[in-house]
Design brief:
86 residues, 3 helices
């Protein structure tokens, strides 16, 4: 037998968590004032996170291309490195 105990989450807590999650999505992904179903909201959240990953990958690729075209000792390269360290 497992010594782990199950934790019950009330419907009110789930509703509160869904509201918090919905508030984290950008305006364009929210469906007006109506509350989306939990399933729909989770799917939209997953899609949003995937789009953020794609955006990070794209920006990373663009930065790599930019850095590759610069002289490593240039002032611009040093500025970019300092920004990345922040």
């Amino acid at each position: 037998m497992s010594s782990r105990r199950s934790t019950r989450i009330t419907e009110e807590e789930i509703s509160e968590l869904i509201s918090k999650l919905q508030s984290l999505l950008p305006e364009g992904r929210r469906r007006g004032n109506s509350r989306a179903s939990a399933t729909k909201l989770l799917k939209e959240t997953c899609n949003y996170i995937k789009s953020l990953h794609r955006e990070v990958d794209d920006l990373s690729d663009r930065l790599s291309d930019l850095m590759a075209g610069m002289d490593n000792d240039s002032a611009q390269a040093e500025i970019i490195r300092s920004l990345l360290r922040s």
